[in-house]
């Protein structure tokens, strides 16, 4: 975390970027094929036993999967850090 983050920071802390790659090409409506395709994502909080507390955040405007928390050595948190985390609108203690 950056030096200006103090104990008062009640966010997610350091998070890991994860990814999944589909090796089979994706068939587009145009007939073109795209692949392999890699999806980058991050997860926050804990999935409950019923597996019904998940929220999917899409990032079409930023083009970046780093929505919240800090990557090790990063100079700033994710683009929606103020919205995701304990006690925030997307409360990781609830969802």
TrEMBL record:
PANTHER family: HOMOSERINE O-ACETYLTRANSFERASE. InterPro entries: AB_hydrolase_fold, HAT_MetX-like. This is Homoserine acetyltransferase. It is an enzyme of class 2 (transferase). Keywords: Acyltransferase, Transferase. It comes from Kouleothrix aurantiaca. GO terms for molecular function: homoserine O-acetyltransferase activity. Its EC number is 2.3.1.31. GO terms for biological process: homoserine metabolic process; methionine biosynthetic process. The gene is metX.
């Amino acid at each position: 975390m950056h030096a200006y983050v103090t104990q008062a920071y009640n966010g997610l802390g350091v998070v890991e970027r994860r990814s999944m790659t589909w090796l089979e090409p994706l068939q587009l409506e145009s007939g073109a094929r795209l692949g392999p395709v890699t999806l980058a994502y991050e997860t926050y909080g804990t999935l409950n036993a019923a597996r019904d507390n998940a929220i999917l955040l899409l990032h079409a405007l930023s083009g970046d999967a780093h929505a919240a928390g800090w990557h090790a050595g990063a100079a700033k948190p994710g683009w929606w850090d103020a919205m995701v985390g304990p006690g925030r609108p997307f409360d990781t203690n609830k969802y």
